[in-house]
Design brief:
This protein is α+β, with helices and mostly antiparallel strands. It has 6 helices and 5 strands, in the order αααββαββαβα. A hairpin with a 2-residue loop joins β1 and β2.
């Protein structure tokens, strides 16, 4: 009956019994997947995991800070609009482009003239639109310029700047009633 190599080495006197038992325990641990890693390798792996976790934490914190700053700027813009909006009391429709669509606001004659001259701007607030004086619009532009829909003091809006070939010499007045 064949014997294992360990038993043969033990019989020959080349190894001691406790050495055979020690290697048998190590082999059993390896088979079960609980082999004790080398001390230096374990420390290096742990340091690498800690560094990766710290990098992930920093990236997540930066993302949270950016989201908080964006939320804060959006809230400041909303408060600015609500504090400085001008009441629209009128029966004249003022039509303006917004996102490829023509929107309308009811304004009076004085507000229409101020919109055409650039003294007032139209801003987006939620799903509606509000009128703001130019001074408040300048502060709003610092926080979120995308909320300003119509500002004739800034050189016109995007729809007025695009020209159709053949119609370059024909400008559309700002106070045109559609």
């Amino acid at each position: 009956m064949p014997t294992s190599l360990q038993e043969q080495l033990l019989k020959a006197g080349l190894v001691k019994k406790d050495q055979v038992q020690k290697t048998a325990r190590q082999q059993a641990k390896k088979r079960k997947g609980r082999a004790a890693p080398d001390g230096a390798e374990a420390k290096a792996a742990a340091a690498k995991r800690r560094a990766e976790q710290a990098a992930r934490d920093r990236a997540l914190a930066a993302e949270r800070n950016a989201a908080a700053k964006a939320r804060e700027r959006r809230d400041q813009a909303r408060q600015l609009i609500e504090a400085h909006r001008i009441a629209r009391t009128g029966e004249l429709e003022y039509a303006f482009p917004d996102g490829g669509r023509v929107k309308r606001l009811l304004v009076d004659a004085q507000q229409r003239a101020q919109l055409a001259s650039g003294a007032l701007v139209i801003v987006r607030l939620g799903r509606g639109y509000e009128l703001l004086p130019q001074a408040a619009a300048a502060r709003l532009r610092e926080r979120d310029a995308a909320l300003i829909v119509v500002d004739h003091a800034q050189g016109g809006d995007a729809a007025a700047s695009s020209t159709v070939p053949g119609y370059e010499g024909f400008e559309v007045p700002d106070d045109l009633v559609w």
